[in-house]
Design goal:
single chain; alpha+beta; 6 strands; 6-stranded mixed beta sheet
Length: 115
């Protein structure tokens, strides 16, 4: 699975669980960390965990395991590292505070529909 296909699948998983304000940033030209950052929100702890669970389940069925998952127990910000894509699922307060969209503004914003 290419990084673009992986990003598309992850976004579909987020949409299935009603994730809020999904942003995809292509960072491949500005960083060696990954090809894509996916940033999304959830309205409460349970929804944020459910989004993460859905991603892990669907990608796991495709034979893709995360390198690491951080923040699941508190669920203010869950970071899922799938090597080529890094997924950030925030509650609204944390998302506004960390403002990753601004920090990674040099990356190219990609519409979910264009993946």
């Amino acid at each position: 699975m290419t990084s673009k296909e992986l990003a598309k699948t992850a976004c579909e998983c987020i949409e299935e669980k009603k994730g809020i304000d999904i942003k995809v940033i292509d960072i491949s030209k500005i960083s060696v960390l990954a090809d894509y950052f996916i940033i999304a929100g959830g309205s409460n702890l349970r929804q944020i965990q459910t989004i993460a669970d859905n991603i892990e389940e669907k990608l796991g069925k495709a034979g893709i395991a995360p390198k690491s998952v951080e923040g699941y127990s508190t669920s203010n910000w869950i970071l899922m590292d799938y090597r080529d894509i890094i997924i950030h699922i925030f509650n609204q307060e944390e998302r506004l505070f960390y403002d990753l969209e601004r920090i990674w503004a040099d990356g190219e914003t990609v519409e979910v529909s264009d993946l």
